[in-house]
Automatic annotation (TrEMBL):
Segments forming domain ChsH2 C-terminal OB-fold: 59-124
UniProt feature coiled coil, ranges: none
InterPro entries attached to this UniProt entry: ChsH2_C, NA-bd_OB-fold, Thioester_dehydratase-like
Name of the protein: ChsH2 C-terminal OB-fold domain-containing protein
Superkingdom of origin organism: Bacteria
Length: 142
């Protein structure tokens, strides 16, 4: 019986609106939008500020440091391309600057994961797609 080849993992597709975010990740930096009319950062990338619909969004660099808001351990592949990547440690991180981002935890044992723990960004350069993905690991700063 022959084994099916593992599919390439899909990666996000940059759009004209999100391109600055992906460009910054490629440089191992994190930039998200800030709305002066709201007085806060917003994420995901968009054309108009949420709530006010102001067209004042500007890109600002953030530290990327944050707190683990929630997580799940996917024991089964979330899709066929991840068949060789279980368990997946899927998470939502709340950046110190406010917004939350969906991500994957790395460099941590599942038994050591705690909601509220401090986490730091890890930039994963994907050679196949030439994209940089944002993952998180426990922060060494306590």
């Amino acid at each position: 019986m022959s084994q099916q080849p593992i599919e390439s993992k899909p990666v996000p597709e940059a759009t004209p609106v999100s391109q600055p975010y992906w460009d910054a990740l490629r440089e191992h930096r994190i930039e998200i939008q800030y709305s002066p009319s709201l007085g806060r950062h917003v994420f995901y990338p968009r054309l108009l500020a949420p709530g006010t619909l102001a067209d004042d969004l500007e890109w600002r660099e953030i530290s990327g440091e944050g707190t683990l808001y929630t997580f799940t351990v996917a024991e089964r592949p979330t899709a066929p391309p991840w068949a060789d990547a279980v368990p997946q440690l899927l998470a939502v991180v709340e950046w110190d600057e406010g917004p939350r981002v969906s991500t994957e935890l790395v460099d941590v044992e599942r038994g050591d994961i705690r909601i509220g723990m401090r986490v730091s960004p890890v930039f994963h350069d994907d050679a196949e797609s030439q994209m940089t993905l944002l993952h998180y690991r426990p922060s060494t700063d306590r």
